[in-house]
Specification:
Layout lengths: L2 E6 L8 E5 L1 H6 L5 E5 L5 E10 L9 E2 L2 E2 L8 H13 L4 H8 L7 E8 L12 H12 L2 E3 H8 L5 H9 L3 E8 L5 E8 L6 H10 L4 H14 L6 E2 H8 L3 H9 L3 E8 L17 H15 L4 E5 L5 H14 L3 E5 L7 H11 L3 E4 L5 H12 L7 E4 L11 E7 L17 H12 L2 E6 L4 H8 L4 E5 L10 E6 H6 L3 E2 L2 E2 H12 L3 E5 L8 E4 L16 E3 L4 E3 L6 E3 L12 E4 L3 H11 L5 E4 L9 H10 L5 E4 L12 E6 L3 H4 L6 H13 L10 E6 L5 H8 L2 H14 L6 E10 L2 H19 L3 E5 L5 E2 L2 E11 L4 H16 L8 E6 L3
Parallel strand pairs: 2-5, 13-18, 13-19, 14-16, 14-17, 15-16, 17-18, 20-32, 23-30, 23-31, 29-30, 31-32
Antiparallel strand pairs: 1-2, 1-4, 3-4, 3-6, 7-8, 7-9, 10-11, 10-12, 21-22, 24-28, 25-26, 26-27, 33-36, 33-37, 34-36, 35-36
The structure holds adenosine-5'-diphosphate (ADP) and zinc ion (ZN) (2 copies).
Length: about 800
């Protein structure tokens, strides 16, 4: 009997691929293991075994596998099921899900390795310079990758050189697969056993009396190991004795110390815990009890609790309870960079049971977290992290908390799978029969609608913890202020007054300006020209700190221009304003204040975000200027004033969710004010003080906002009443993009009629020299989602067979944000 394995390969292919297995292989291999297989010409890929069976494929001859990579499954059956759901729901391939789900280090790839032939007999003097360099290098290191040879010869095209060397039978090529993950090794030291006896020790110290540094190391060693049998790191010994590692090395050379290496974990927490008991106030207790009873009925639960109402404490207690049952808990957050504070709160409570997982982590760190969760070790019990955490190999998940559930960064935008982690988490929880809680001070319309229609259970928490009042909101009409000349740059008189007062009282201030997309652009006062990105349809924005004009889409940049590039006039000025400009104006207004800025530009490095937050927490900063990054879940004690610099550029965003988002954003920023006893203050500067959303934000009227927005969504056929699928056609050729989009729209209209919108160019229709055009499909509630998707799939398949459109790509986004 022949055996076959269906594999998921990390490629955007519709199908699984079948390989043949020998009897012995079939005996050993099980679902969820990785196999290395050949696919296409000479390429080796890592595939995951999705199924083992005995039916040979119909249309091709199954190839044998190349290599078995695991001894035990790396992917659980739960995961395979979940991947399959994601791929069906979000219309992408299982291979794409696999790429997103597994840390890159698990996906081995093939690469050519160049080796010297043993006993080659080509006369070395006949090699040219390049060849000689390569041969010489290969005599020192047994093998080299192509890339290393490129570096050696300092150019890209090295294949001709290698080919000639192969022909001359000097070198050979090997296809080698290598595992990318390397366990971290730590160097330890110990005294050689012959010196452990008391007498030997004294002799040693005497011998070293004219080598004071070495003697110092030895003494430090004795004091550090006197009461502890723990292995001693070489680094610790050097640090404590103040010696360099060279001194230690010389002791190793003399045979006094020996070095040894051990693997350690990169991840994990090393501090102490302060597991202080949480005592709920009566509102928290009520909410907690309600949540528990809904969980018992297996309901998805939405917690609508105002900012600073103590939701986090409720999450902590829920997690504690689920750990007691021996199950795992997952705490999902919108963007992990924004959570240093929260991670610390959880680690203070749960210690090293908390594992953090996110994309800023290195390859190796991610592998370690994955393995901990897979083995359900003590360490893998609580996972906290951003959206990709839903792909971890949970064994028995008991609880998912989705914090700030309204956040749009839960939706992956690029590449596929374009999943929404909150919605996928609901499915994941159902798969494990785990409890799931969505929490927010400003729930998304979708989730609130679900609660409104009894699909989710709703729990409300309307009071701030400690009876702190909601901040006092004041709307400042900057249109009038401008007319009356009561503005200094972008600051109204009111805002300046309030900042002054806060500084006098030694309180802190947060100023919010919408994301850097609104940074200043350069405009010629004579002809109106502003410098454009050559690759994208956007204006370049001005960055004062390096005096550059930059494109936010592709990174293209040029030096700041002194003259208009179109007409040569030197009357040019910057229009619009971003965080950087707020900061500059602020420094002029308050020269003595300590000011910091937090946006994408200032938080690039791994720890830069933490540094800014920590400085603010430690009161080393008086005023923090920032973008959306400031809105999320931060708990500062001494902030009593929050200023929203300009509410209008939020409201005027061309998007059906713009109003909902503006409400959420402003409510969240406002929530950073006055979290302790004193009542906080929020100033909203706007040109439209009577805008409904501004009114609703200033009165904190969530339910009115919800009702009015819902009414609009109904009228204009948007979620939650209609579901959306957006197709984006993309290519380097403008007219092909147009033709392809028109073809698709026509095909779709035949089936979905008036529920097809577009094709239409997005606001930025060219990025990195590729043209984009969108088609939107609206799906009424009573129309079957499954059938609709099958139909879209069919139309896309016939689209794929049209030769003229071969260079055109179609991106599918289900539930676009
Ligand atoms: P939210 O997550 O709803 O914005 P938090 O959980 O951050 O609110 O709570 C706000 C503040 O109140 C935090 O500083 C938190 O430590 C404190 N707090 C909340 N509940 C309790 C409690 N039961 N006991 C002590 N402090 C609490
Ligand atoms: Zn000009
Ligand atoms: Zn660009």
């Amino acid at each position: 009997m022949a055996y076959f394995a269906d594999l998921i390969l990390p490629l955007p292919l519709d199908k699984r691929f079948t390989y043949s297995l020998s009897d012995a292989e079939a005996e050993f291999i099980c679902e969820g293991m990785r196999l290395a297989v050949q696919f296409g010409k000479n390429r080796i890929y890592t595939g995951i075994v999705a199924k083992i069976h005995q039916n040979p494929p119909q249309v091709y001859e199954a190839k044998p596998i190349h290599q078995i990579l695991d001894e035990k499954p790396l992917v659980s059956l739960h995961q395979l099921k979940f991947w399959s759901w994601i791929s069906h729901y979000y219309l992408c391939s299982e291979g794409e899900v696999m790429r997103a789900a597994l840390p890159g280090a698990f996906l081995l790839e093939s690469e050519s390795i160049v080796k010297l032939r043993k006993n080659f007999d080509f006369p070395e003097e006949k090699l040219n310079d390049d060849e000689f360099l390569v041969v010489e290098a290969l005599q020192r290191q047994s093998s080299m990758k192509i890339q290393e040879i490129q570096e050696l010869l300092d150019r890209k095209s090295v294949l001709p050189v290698i080919n000639l060397l192969v022909e001359k039978e000097v070198v050979e090529l090997n296809q080698e697969i290598y595992e990318q993950y390397k366990p971290k090794e730590v160097r330890f030291v110990r005294l050689r056993s012959e010196f452990e006896a008391e007498a030997a020790m004294h002799r040693l110290l005497d011998e070293l009396s004219n080598a004071p540094k070495q003697r110092e190391i030895l003494l430090t060693y004795f004091s550090l190991t006197a009461n502890s049998r723990k292995p001693l790191k070489a680094k610790t010994l050097c640090d404590k004795s103040g010696a360099t590692s060279a001194v230690l090395k010389s002791l190793v050379k003399k045979g006094i110390f020996e070095e040894y290496y051990e693997q350690t974990d990169r991840v994990g927490f090393k501090g102490e815990t302060f597991n202080k008991e949480i005592i709920f106030n009566k509102y928290q207790q009520q909410a907690f009890d309600q949540i528990k009873s809904y969980f018992a009925e297996e309901q998805v639960c939405l917690l609508h609790g105002v900012t600073s109402s103590g939701k986090t404490e409720i999450y902590i207690r829920l997690i504690e309870d689920v750990l007691k049952t021996g199950k795992q808990a997952l705490y999902l957050l919108p963007e992990i960079a924004l959570t240093t504070q929260l991670i610390k709160r959880l680690q203070d409570y749960f210690g090293d049971k908390v594992l953090v997982y996110h994309s800023r982590y290195s390859l190796n760190e991610r592998v370690e977290v994955y393995k901990h969760v897979l083995s359900n070790s003590e360490k893998g019990q609580i996972i906290i992290g951003a959206r990709s955490c839903i792909f971890l190999p949970f064994q028995n998940l008991g609880l998912i908390v989705v914090d700030e559930e309204h956040e749009t960064t839960f939706k992956q935008f690029d590449p596929a799978p374009r999943y929404h982690a909150r919605d996928a988490a609901v499915v994941l929880a159902a798969q494990f029969k785990a409890a799931i809680l969505l929490g927010s001070a400003t729930p998304s319309l979708e989730s609130y609608f679900n609660a409104d229609h009894n699909k989710y259970a709703l729990v409300e928490l309307n009071r701030r913890y400690g009876e702190v009042l909601m901040p006092d909101m004041e709307v400042v009409d900057i249109k009038t202020a401008h007319r009356k000349k009561k503005m200094t740059g972008h600051f109204s008189e009111r805002l300046i007054e309030e900042i002054k007062e806060s500084l006098e009282e030694e309180e802190q201030v947060i100023l919010f300006q919408n994301r850097r997309g609104f940074s200043p652009i350069l405009e010629c006062n004579t002809c109106g020209h502003s410098p454009q990105c050559p690759n994208c349809d956007v204006s370049l924005t001005y960055h004062s700190h390096n005096n550059q004009l930059r494109c936010h889409y592709c990174g293209y940049h040029i030096a700041m221009q002194q003259k208009c590039m179109a007409c040569g006039s030197d009357e040019i000025s910057t229009k619009g304003f971003g965080t950087e400009q707020v900061e500059t104006e602020l420094r002029a207004l308050f020269p003595d204040a300590r000011i910091a800025r937090m946006d994408q530009d200032t938080t690039r490095g791994k720890h830069s975000y933490e540094k800014i937050i920590t400085a603010f927490e430690n009161f080393e900063t008086d005023i923090l200027v920032g973008t959306q990054m400031l809105t999320k879940g931060l708990d500062f004690r001494k902030v009593n004033l929050v200023g929203i610099m300009n509410a209008d550029n939020l409201l005027n965003f061309p998007d059906f969710r713009a109003h909902e988002r503006s409400f959420q954003l402003m409510q969240q920023v406002a929530g950073r004010s006055g979290r302790t006893k004193k009542r906080g203050k929020v100033l909203i500067q706007t040109y439209n003080p009577y805008h409904r959303i501004i009114q609703q934000v200033s009165t904190g009227n969530f339910s009115e906002m919800y009702r009015e927005q819902l009414e609009e969504r109904y009228q204009y056929k948007y979620p939650p009443y209609f579901r959306l699928i957006r197709l984006t056609v993309k290519s380097r050729d403008f007219s092909k993009t147009n033709d392809a989009a028109a073809w698709l729209a026509t095909a779709l209209e035949k089936v979905f009629e008036r529920f097809v919108l577009g094709p239409e160019f997005p606001p930025v229709a060219r990025i990195r020299n590729e043209y984009y055009k969108n088609i939107l499909i609206k799906i009424p509630q009573k129309q079957s989602l499954g059938k609709t998707k099958a139909m879209v799939h069919r139309i896309l398949s016939s689209f794929g067979t049209i030769a003229a459109f071969r260079s055109v790509r179609v991106i599918i986004n289900v539930d676009p944000q």
